[in-house]
Amino acid sequence: MRYGLLRRVLVAFFYSSAVWLLLLGLVASPVHAEEPQAERTNWHYGAYVDLSYIVNFNFPENHKFRSRTTTPRTNELAPNMVLAYVRKDISDRSRWGMEFAVQGGYDSKDFAFGSDRPHLAGADTLRHFSRANVSYLAPAGKGLTLTAGLFNSLIGYESLYAKDNANYTRSWIADNSPYQMFGLGARYPVSDELTAGLYIINGYWHLANPNSLPSYVTQLVWKPTVRFTVTENVYYGPDQRDTGIEFWRLFSDYTMEWKGESLTVAFSYDFGTENIAGQIGRPRAFWTGGALFTRWNIAGPWSLAVRPEFYWDRNARQTGFEQFVKAVTTTLEYKVPIASSNTLLRLEHRYDESTGVEGGFFKRGEVRPGVPGLTREQHLLTLAVLWTFDSP
Fold it and tell me: What CATH number is given to the structural domain containing 375?
């Protein structure tokens, strides 16, 4: 059966998420008249809507942002994300927790599959789940946090959700590393400065299905001061049909962040490698990228973010094309808080340059019927409205 049971458990878990939610609510937080206020506020719920209009100055007829899984549509009004969630936080007084969220929109379509991987059975439905997990804070030492289900990816500085990022469009390293993971994990604060984590997950892309073997992720988070944090993630596992260990993928994600009163600066660097099965000589693939994230709160509701970056996909393993990309993104934000909701208005300019034997971006016109033309440069001008509601 070769771990066929793991695949069936994965699908069954998603479809039974509502049952998890009901059971956890009964076990972890029964309702009593004398329940203290602190217990009730462990529960949170909210919603999120993301709309944008991206002007692509190449004006391609297909309206596509080539090689991208997020903000893939240009020159049209795009509902990129709609989300609703409920969450129960863990604490010393209430050790069980959970997350459950559903989503839709363009950004929920292709973020979890990779460039050419077979899809998991039911993936078109499962992609609408943003979170579906339970957690437990074990009374061991400083507190061991255990998590099972679908949870936010350990890897990467940016989120799938633009509201959580300084810029509206995501970086190349973010779009080509996992936004979500499915599996089991443990996280433990070794000291006041160091936290370690170990996770067993179903694969690099949680809705792809190259095989039935698990993969592994380790994480170290070092926080020597209140303002400075260093995070190192290492992924190791099989992501091809041939699961021989010589074809296992090694991927590393490294981030340093300094957060001041009005200025945040972070640098993130990724690299990955694997031998390619099924090709003559079993060549070694390699991809790497980095980005510098800066965000400055100018005054009051106004903020400015700038992100220079690069990405090299030497063997077309992540973007689907052999290319080297350079990009600079500049975002002006205005925040409108109203009660428990926030509305973010963002105006963003983005410049991308793609070179290499298969590099380029779509442009107006076709080289032959059905084959759009390519150009090495692309300018995007974006107006985005992000509305969020979070319970107190």
Answer: 2.40.160.10
Separation CA 211–CA 208 (nearest Å) = 9
- DSSP assignment of 179-224, as one string? SEEEEEEEEEESSSSEEEEEEEES-SSTTB-S-S--EEEEEEEE-S
* pLDDT confidence tier of residue 40, bands split at 50, 70 and 90: low
Over residues 220-256, the pLDDT tens digits come to 999 999 999 999 999 999 999 999 999 999 999 999 9
Using an 8 Å Cβ cutoff, are 270 and 178 in contact?
Answer: no
Q: Domain of residue 321: give its range.
A: 4-390
Residue 81: CB atoms within 10 Å: 24
Rounded Cα gap, residues 117 and 123, in angstroms: 12
pTM recorded for the entire structure: 0.88
Nearest one of 303, 306, 353, 302 to 327, comparing CA atoms: 353
Contact between residue 286 and residue 274 where contact means Cβ atoms under 8 Å apart = no
Total count of domains within the chain: 1
Which tokens go with 225? 């001061």
Both tokens assigned to 300: 């009051």
